[in-house]
């Protein structure tokens, strides 16, 4: 179902928007376009409901209010998180107590977003026959009827899915635009595999032969340098002693910096600052001309998708979606930053963003690009 919805969103919405921009030589904020695209795909996968968020002319006022409220709540919630680990959490707590400022806005945004999603859940429960492959329908068919539990779970999945994928793709297209040799290798691989039609073998656990090995390696390398979630926190459940002798106590908050870990010389070597997909590849085949994707390190040294029992269950789905977008876009277009030598200003809410967006122009792909 994810593949079908992804294809429809790509063919019916994303490609026409990019094609029109290329034809008219207009600028697009690719960060915003990808956010809307990802929102549509993930939301329909979860709820079986088409927001049409990528089609501005078809977005209802209710849908627009929901999307804006969801985005606003994420931003304020992220600011809370930063305050908790690096500033004075008392400030937002006081504002929440007095119901003023950002905390008042947060409450209003959360109520708007939860009200919209809660309405979809209630309406689905009232249907005489539950039919569909979306996550909500499957949960209800399986007996999960507690509306609050289902709502909280689906909001969590929506947050993780649409924010992470759109963020990862935004940074990827910028990095590729600055590395023409990598772009040529990517396009060569994409076109040799059907021009965007995925026929690669799955890479379960990050190893093995793969038709899209260079694409997978390029995405993995970009995620190393620009992880969608740059910082994360865990809470200690019981007193423990780590292998290096560090003592941790129950209730302590452990903060780990994924962005910094991806740029560690000790882990990635002296070329840690370079974007080099080849670090994830080995030559394969009798003639040594084929690439084989090989995971580097383990999920604890590369915790982009978490690690251990908390590892992201949607990792392979996320890669499939990202590969689909990369193959589809790069097989048809060149993504060119509107400003030559564009260097985005990195900002972090829940996920890493480009301040002010990513203005680009689209150029139709030609044979001369290869």
From TrEMBL:
Its cofactor is heme. GO terms for molecular function: metal ion binding; oxidoreductase activity. Keywords: Heme, Iron, Metal-binding, Oxidoreductase. Transmembrane segments: none annotated. InterPro entries: Cyt_P450 (IPR001128), Cyt_P450_E_grp-I (IPR002401), Cyt_P450_sf (IPR036396). It comes from the Eukaryota. Heme binds at residue 312. Belongs to the cytochrome P450 family. This is Cytochrome P450. It comes from Cinchona calisaya.
């Amino acid at each position: 179902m994810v593949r079908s919805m992804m294809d429809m969103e790509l063919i019916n919405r994303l490609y026409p928007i990019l094609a029109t921009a290329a034809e008219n030589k207009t600028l697009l904020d690719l960060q915003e376009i990808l956010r809307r695209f990802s929102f549509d795909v993930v939301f329909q996968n979860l709820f079986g409901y088409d927001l049409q968020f990528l089609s501005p002319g078809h977005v209802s006022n209710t849908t627009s209010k929901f999307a804006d409220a969801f985005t606003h709540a994420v931003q304020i919630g992220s600011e809370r998180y930063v305050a908790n680990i690096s500033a004075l959490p008392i400030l937002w707590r006081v504002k929440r107590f007095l119901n003023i400022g950002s905390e008042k806005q947060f409450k209003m945004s959360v109520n708007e977003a939860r009200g919209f999603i809660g309405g979809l859940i209630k309406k689905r429960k009232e249907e005489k026959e539950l039919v569909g492959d979306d996550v909500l329908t499957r949960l209800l068919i399986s007996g999960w009827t507690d509306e609050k539990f289902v709502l909280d779970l689906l909001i969590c999945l929506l947050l993780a899915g649409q924010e992470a994928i759109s963020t990862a793709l935004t940074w990827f297209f910028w990095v590729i635009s600055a590395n023409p040799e990598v772009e040529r290798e990517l396009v060569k691989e994409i076109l040799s595999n059907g021009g965007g039609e995925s026929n690669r073998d799955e890479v379960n656990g990050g190893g093995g032969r793969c038709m899209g090995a260079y694409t997978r390696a390029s995405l993995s390398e970009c995620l190393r340098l620009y992880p969608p979630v740059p910082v994360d926190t865990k809470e200690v459940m019981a007193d423990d002693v780590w292998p290096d002798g560090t003592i941790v106590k129950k209730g302590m908050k452990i903060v780990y910096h994924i962005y910094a870990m991806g740029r560690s010389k000790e882990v990635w070597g002296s070329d840690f600052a370079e974007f080099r997909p080849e670090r994830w590849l080995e030559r394969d085949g009798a003639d040594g001309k084929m690439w084989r994707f090989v995971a580097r390190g383990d999920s604890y040294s590369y915790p982009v998708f978490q690690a251990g029992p908390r590892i992201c269950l949607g990792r392979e789905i996320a890669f499939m979606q990202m590969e689909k977008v990369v193959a589809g876009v790069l097989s048809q277009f060149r993504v060119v930053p509107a400003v030559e030598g564009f260097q985005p200003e990195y900002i972090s809410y829940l996920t890493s963003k480009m301040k002010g967006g990513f203005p680009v122009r689209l150029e139709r792909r030609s044979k001369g690009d290869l």
